[in-house]
Predict the 3D structure of the following.
Amino acid sequence: MKIGLVLSGGGVRGIAHLGVLKSLQEQGIEISMISGCSAGSIVGAMFGAGYSPEHILEIVVSTTTLRAMRPAFSRLALLKLDKIENAYLKYIPHNSFEKLKIPLIVNATDIENGENIFFDKGELLKPVLASCCVPGLFEPIKFQEKTFVDGGVLNNMPVEPLEGKCDFILGSHCNPIGKLAHNSMPSILQKSLFLAINNNSRHRLNKCNYVIEPPALSRIDPFNVRKAQEIFKIGYEFTQQIDMQKIINSF
């Protein structure tokens, strides 16, 4: 059976996907194809390149990666992602969709034309970073004569590329609605953004044959990198409670 995996965006909460993948591996679930958005695109690229979930966690939270998010000091955003590209080139030097061990599709938002664009061929890291480019936080990515921001703006759960190509579509969604503090302007803007993103995900979640969505993630600030280990554990322990082989075999 060909199993497709959809990985949502969700900031640091996307680390939960790594815990989910660790549990799926332990249960003997083999993923045939991945579609990822934002944080899910990074996880998909690294896992598709052959790295273990534990190793990806080490890479993502490394000081090298965090230092690479340098201030942009521009009128467009606070941070630039260009040095992160160099950091990830060390781990995926081929920088190619075609050379991944598991086929991957990522999406980004063409901010000028208001379109959701899918990438699955050619250069890998620019589209992955474009998919992660949270508006206002990161400077937009210029690629193929277009300007891109986070794929989650229009489609945070990109299930469409897997439809008709996989026998079973499994979703990993890391954005359950919760009661995060909203007592400041930044927190209100953050909560508003995630509510809007969740709204464009709901009907796509229904297109998955099964969705893994750990409710404990609702209490985690999606930008608090200090919670990385806790988030990984939440994804892993929640998925360990699910008999995925039984669910897939009964489909």
Q: What stands out?
A: The first helix runs from residue 16 to 26. The longest strand covers residues 104-110. Strands lie at 3-7, 33-37, 104-110, 115-119, 141-143, 146-150, 168-172, 210-212. Residues 69-73 have pLDDT under 50 and may be disordered.
